[in-house]
Task: inverse folding
């Protein structure tokens, strides 16, 4: 079983091309910095306004300072969440037994940048998918609420999420403590001028009969503010996620098949830095062998139990 921690590379360097949002393909030689489209995705990391750029090393230094004051008394807990934490809120995952891709393998194209940018039919289907999606209507479930409870109990918590549904924040997690690795489905971004607007407004235009609404500023192609396959992650958000994975004492991967890189490799990185690794997921993952504890039970009941033990200082318990 391969662990891809090395693919993240040194976070102070520009994010290499081999670390786009993609499946576990082998690392290639380093190539030029991020493409303009990928670099332009202003993921809200909650620390600084979208669009404001600081060097990765500055972000890391600032982060280390904040962490040292916050973690003086209690160990930092990192929670990497994936689509499985939100299935009980009615949002289907991609790769689970009821996952979108098992039902419709073509659906992967709808979230692949190259297809999206070159094929108007794919864009029309994407907008239909967004219109029909439960994502914007969904409410947090017991697992999201348990994460917020842990944070409110005084334990230093950072959520690194692959989800684009915003449910951690709706459940009350402070925005600055949620790192949205794959962006958000609640906003829309122009691929040409980078103008950002609300998803609701774009969906109203689709409902009113425009199957592929264009940017109101420049006429450019609009997409959701999510990171599609073929795009790179926001380097600042990834840098901070790496810092969290390296600094935490407990790393809980929940509801993720741990197949999407580079997010999945954060689990390996945390274990390498001595964190206790707990995996809560119904199906096996490539990182189970590395884990100190694997819980293969329904998340909305299993995660609260795990987090109660963490809050009680049990470090997650188990073997
Ligand atoms: N809610 C969302 O925002 C959402 C939904 C679908 C996909 N996505 C995007 O697609 C990517 C998919 O990757 P992923 O690794 O997050 O998800 P995934 O679909 O690859 O894996 C989800 C995993 O969760 C498990 N699971 C699902 N429901 C569960 C439950 N109730 N209890 C226990 N286990 C359960 C499944 O067995 C599966 O292994 C994400 O990175 C994300 O960007 C997001
Ligand atoms: Zn535009």
Result:
């Amino acid at each position: 079983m391969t662990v891809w921690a090395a693919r993240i590379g040194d976070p102070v360097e520009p994010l290499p091309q081999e670390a786009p949002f993609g499946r576990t393909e082998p690392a290639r030689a380093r190539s030029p910095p991020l493409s303009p489209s990928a670099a332009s995705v202003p993921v809200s990391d909650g620390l600084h306004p979208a669009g404001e750029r600081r060097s990765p090393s500055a972000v890391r230094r600032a982060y280390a300072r904040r962490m040292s004051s916050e973690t003086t008394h209690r160990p930092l807990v990192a929670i990497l969440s994936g689509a499985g934490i939100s299935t009980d809120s009615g949002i289907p995952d991609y790769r689970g037994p009821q996952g979108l891709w098992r039902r419709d393998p073509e659906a992967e194209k709808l979230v692949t940048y190259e297809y999206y940018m070159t094929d108007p039919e794919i864009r029309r289907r994407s907008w239909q998918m967004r219109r029909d999606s439960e994502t914007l209507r969904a409410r947090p479930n017991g697992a999201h609420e348990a994460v917020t409870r842990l944070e409110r109990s005084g334990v230093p918590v950072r959520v690194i999420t692959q989800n684009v549904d915003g449910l951690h924040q709706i459940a009350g997690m402070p925005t600055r403590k949620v790192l949205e690795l794959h962006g958000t489905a609640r906003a829309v971004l122009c691929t040409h001028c980078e103008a950002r607007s609300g998803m609701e407004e774009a969906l109203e235009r689709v409902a009113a009969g425009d199957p592929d609404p264009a940017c109101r500023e420049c006429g450019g192609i609009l997409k959701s503010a999510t990171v599609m396959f073929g795009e790179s992650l926001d380097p600042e958000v990834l840098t901070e996620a790496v810092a969290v994975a390296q600094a935490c004492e407990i790393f809980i991967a929940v509801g993720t098949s741990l197949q999407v890189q580079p997010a999945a490799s954060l689990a390996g990185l945390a274990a390498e830095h001595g964190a206790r690794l707990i995996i809560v997921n119904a199906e096996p993952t490539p990182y189970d062998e590395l884990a100190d504890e694997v819980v293969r039970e329904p998340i909305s009941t299993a995660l609260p139990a795990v987090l109660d033990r963490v809050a009680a200082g049990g470090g997650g318990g188990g073997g």
The chain has two domains: 43-48+55-91+140-184+234-311, 103-137+186-226. DSSP finds 13 helices and nine strands in the chain. Residues 1-53 have pLDDT under 50 and may be disordered. The longest helix spans residues 56-70.
